[in-house]
Amino acid sequence: MATKKTNTTGTKTPVAEAVKTEAVKAAEAKTDAAVTKAPEKKAAAKPAEKPAAKPAEKPAAKPAAKPAAKKETKKAAPAKKPAAKKEVKKAAPAEPDKVALADMVRAKFEKKDVSKIGEKIAIEIKAYGEKEYYIYVLIEDGKVTVEPWGYIDHDVHIDMPIADVVAVINGNYDFKAKALSGDFYAIGSLTKLIKAGEALL
Predict the structure, then answer these.
(1) CA 82 to CA 117: how far, in whole Å?
(2) At 42, is the secondary structure helix, strand, or coil?
């Protein structure tokens, strides 16, 4: 077995020097490692300070959107019926009252020449409609008299709608033909009625 020689002079042998050198290097390496690792640990220990988060800016408040106005659904007004207008146009004019009707008859007959009639003829007319009026027509002494009332002493009594009396006055009524056909109610002397009609109309 080989034996190591020791240096009695106190000087280090190359082997011992080498061991020492290796130990120093190893120690230095550990120290370096410790030095390099320490900052990493510190860095890991203290988390990097994050800049203070700024409060999120609230977006500018938008004006509340108005709810879309509901379109009012109006029901279409029913179209006016043209028939109604026609009815209004065709509606009979307001009936003349008793005095107005007598005035119309008077204006039509009073100026007629009845001088050829050599007798008295009295005609009572009952004009009816919304109301009922009596008119008295007297042919006597070549004159015609018209009054807005009835007369008991008459030769002929006639019932006729007011509208027909107005038609007679306006010349839109064939009096003789309608009298003969019995189109209107007449009682009394038909001969005197036709004679008066021929003179007056």
Answers:
(1) 52
(2) helix
| CA atoms of 154 and 124, how far apart (whole Å) | 6
- Sorting pLDDT into bands at 50, 70 and 90, what band is 50? low
- Burial class from Cβ neighbours inside 10 Å (0-12, 13-18, 19+) for residue 83 reads exposed
Which phi and psi (to 5°) does residue 140 adopt? -160, 135
Report the alpha-carbon distance of residue 97 to residue 103 in Å, rounded. 10
Region of poorest pLDDT, from 37-51, 103-117, 123-137: 37-51
Interval 21-41: pLDDT, tens: 565 565 555 555 444 444 444
Q: Closest by alpha carbon to 200, among 168, 157, 177, 172? A: 168
pTM of the model: 0.53
Instruction: Give the helix ranges, DSSP H, for 46-161.
Output: 82-90, 98-109
What are the strands of the beta sheet with 121-128, ordered from one edge?
143-147, 132-140, 121-128, 156-161, 185-188
Partners of 185 in the β-ladder: 159
CA-wise closest residue to 110 among 133, 139, 135, 134: 139
> Beta 185-188 vs 121-128: how paired, if at all?
unpaired
